[in-house]
Amino acid sequence: MKYVLVSGGVISGVGKGIIASSTGLLLKTMGLKVTMIKIDPYMNVDAGTMAPTEHGEVFVLDDGGETDLDLGNYERYLNITLTRDNNITTGKIYQHVIERERRGDYLGKTVQIVPHLTNALQDWIERVAKVPVDDTNEEPDICVIELGGTCGDIENAPFIEALRQLRYRIGKGNFLHIFVSYVPVINEEQKTKPTQQAIKEVQKLGLHPDLIACRCKKVLLQATTNKVAMFCQVEPEQVVAVHDVSSVYHVPMLLEQQGIKTSLSKILNLDELKLSVEQVLRGANTWTSWKSSTMQGDLQKNVTIALVGKYTSFEDSYISVIKALEHSAMACKRKLNLVMVNASHLEDYAKEDSPAEHDKAWEVLHTADGILVPVGFGTRGTEGMIAATKWARENKKPFLGVCLGMQIAVIEYARNVCKLEGASSVELDANTPHPVVIFMPEIDRTNLGGTMRLGIRPTHFQAGSEWSKLHALYLKSSSTDSSPSSLTHPSEELIVKERHRHRYEVNPSYISTLSSNGLHFVGKDDKGERMEILELKDHPWFVGVQFHPEYLSRVLEPSIPFLGFVASSAACLDTVMRDLESESRRSVDV
User: Same fold for the domain at 2-288 and the one at 302-440+451-589?
Assistant: First the structure.
């Protein structure tokens, strides 16, 4: 097993996750089997209880693990399936060591950071690195580890020491360290002093970077590269410039152009890994597909999507949703124009308190090609979401509701079509006369961490739902094996598997009323009790899903609900359907 560590200094948020994902992708295009681990130095056991406006979205894995959003990047770039153990936090590793101490595993010894915690970290990394992450079910060749935060922070110290020991123990040629630094520009001059100081700091801790990735606004000057190399004790070819590009999907090409694959191969002795012809060809095909999908040049047509949300001030709150939209737009050969709409600005009170923002929000809604209502918690902005959903339904505007967005669609329909005055969710109004959305009975009401309905679960399309546009798309994608969702389609029904994260559900007591008035629940859980998908007939695209299809969207394999939504918004759904059908026929011929 070989390891690549990606860490950073100077400041956080310089793109370590994208660089780590891009490095993993490039290794995969060489034919290697790659896995990834994210280390987060915060005390939380996992990311599940963290506010999206502070830390970004919570990413959910197949096994229900609530993790850092960077694991979403890893899965999207490498098309792999990770587990909760691929995300290590300070809280998680301390909990692990303390539980062992309580069991008496340390035989009465004084338990310390070194060696007990650092040994536990190394054991964890080496154990997880061997777990298969793709459909080959084979042990990975290489593990990319991203260390969050900045080197030198007190919270990072145990992880740095553990990784230093790991590097020493496994020996030369099995460990490579990429250090990501930031090169600011002051008075038109690229400054290297922050990078020099950061490298000295990490060297004091016992790690010596093999490659230095310099994040910068514009292309790094050769003189700057030479200066970094000289003062950081590396060769110029070991300094990689990662300047801003028009799309993060172009970063792998940027790294490849600077010879990083050669450096990785040389330092890690990758030639000693005997790859089969099939592995090499599979890697080459992955690289060809990536470049053809992400390097489409200047697309002539736009598709404008209005995202009506609660956390619009911080885009990372919806990072997987945004990426799913991007993947679908690329598949539709459209340039995505995403406009964030603060749901509160659509509400009636905003007309008086902030009329300019109210008018602007509604103008965006009226001119958008499609309207998306995503996940959220709490009451703020929900009346604005309901208003946006009503407008989309009445004006035949393509609409997609995800999780809370589906529940919002149910509330809107109950109020305005079924005439159930005051209908709401018990989350939004505990005293509502018509609780069309309720708290799931099996959910723990006292503890927050890891207590929701989490992970991958099946959804069964119901008999008689063959008219459904979403049903048709899932069915066609299952024939091409191109969907990231796990699908089966026995003759009697279509079953899809998607990831979930919710505490509330549509109230079974109101299903009959809603259905008889035209709101069709075309997808239900395996017991037929929990509503998973709703859809309207006689509408270009009006779909709500209780699950989170964005978690399974991939760069080369877009999420089916998002693909259908974007294609409908771009008025090319029929074309997408035909393309899937053609691809299905080609796969049968093969």
Answer: yes
pLDDT at 403: 95
Give me 215's structure tokens. 């994040």
Tell me which residue of 325, 336, 326 sits closest to 301, measured CA to CA: 336
Q: Contact at 8 Å (CB) between 365 and 304? A: no
Architecture of the domain delimited by 2-288: 3-Layer(aba) Sandwich (3.40)
Inter-residue contact 283 to 30 (CB < 8 Å):
yes
Which are the contacts of 252, defined by CB distance < 8 A and separation ≥ 6? Answer: 22, 25, 26, 77, 290
Which of 380, 435, 430, 431 is CA-nearest to residue 407? 435
Distance, CA of 534 to CA of 195 (rounded, Å): 53
467-492 residue pLDDT tens: 999 999 999 887 655 455 666 655 56
Q: Out of 502, 550, 557, 572, pick the active-site residue.
A: 550
How much is the pTM?
A: 0.92
Q: Which residue among 177, 345, 358, 548 is the active-site one?
A: 548
d(CA 524, CA 213): 48
Using CA atoms, how far apart are residues 220 and 244, in angstroms rounded to an integer?
Answer: 11
**Rounded alpha-carbon distances, angstroms, from residue 553 to 77, 191, 324:** 10, 39, 5
| CA gap 254, 241 in Å, rounded | 8
Q: Which CATH class is domain 302-440+451-589?
A: alpha beta
CB 484 within 8 A of CB 328: no
pLDDT in tens, 317-341: 999 999 999 999 999 999 999 999 9
- pLDDT of 588: 39
- Taking the domains of the chain in order of start, what are their residue ranges? 2-288, 302-440+451-589
| 545 neighbors 399 (Cβ within 8 angstroms) | no
The one catalytic residue in 216, 232, 332, 403 is 403
Q: Decide: residue 478, CB within 10 A, 0-12 exposed, 13-18 middle, 19+ buried.
A: buried
Residue 548 designated active-site: yes
